[in-house]
Amino acid sequence: MDNRSFDLFDLELFQTVVKAGSLSAAATLIDLPLSTVSRRIKHLEDRAKSRLFERTSRGLNLTEAGDILLKSSELILQEFDNVFSKLNEHNTVIAGRVVVHCPPSTFTHLFTNFLPLFNLQYPEIELDIVTSLTDVCFIDERIDIFLHTGILPDSTMIARHLFDSEIDYYASEDYIKKYGMPSIENIKEHKFICFSPFMKNPSVWGFSDEKPLFAYKPSIISDDFLLCSQQVKAGVGIGVLPKAMFINKHTNDGLIALFDKNYRRILPAYAVLSSKRYVPNKVKAFVEFFTEYLHQQK
Description:
The chain has 298 residues and is an alpha/beta fold. The protein is 35% helix and 24% strand.
């Protein structure tokens, strides 16, 4: 077979398999039959005259040949995208569909005033905002932008830092009247309501200068900020909540902030791009406009 005859889709498919960790996971992500994915990978292996993956009970591991192909394919696809990016630079109209993944209640409250402004600035862009209660898959190429809170799981991701929000402790006036003012000394006597964007925090720590001071186990943990804040307002317990999530940052929506800044943690927020290669102007427009909007709200 002529090694010059190749399909760029095969290289993209190969990268997707590497990131997904298995043929079946990759097939699900790109909505192709498993047999097709398997056949295309076999086609690449035949042309490379080498096995690209070692198949184990725990998934797929790259062989030495596979690692070489992965690095080379990234350069090839990057150059391919750069060529078409230059060809399309003459098109000054920013238009088209932009799909944004937004965890429920984490960012949606920020869209109330932002969306009308963005639509006025970019009337030709169609925004498709997707919310999900499940863990996000950053290699889903059907989504252009992932709005993410917390530490990035992969340091190689192409991400724009949006803001940092202090994680603070809050209680309602009724709660304080009933149980007294919480202190570090009696902290374990109280119930906690914890906002966790991806619900992966069965046990949470209080921090001072990044050093754990006390541990507590939430009575309620949810990725729904409104649910958490409502329970805190109802006097169910102490809320562990990000300050930036409150609509009225100056009054904290009627809740009282507890402790001092030494016990606060930082929750970073990012706009993560699904592609590490060419980023369309419409996607750049959303990220830049949203970033500027957030900075103006400080």
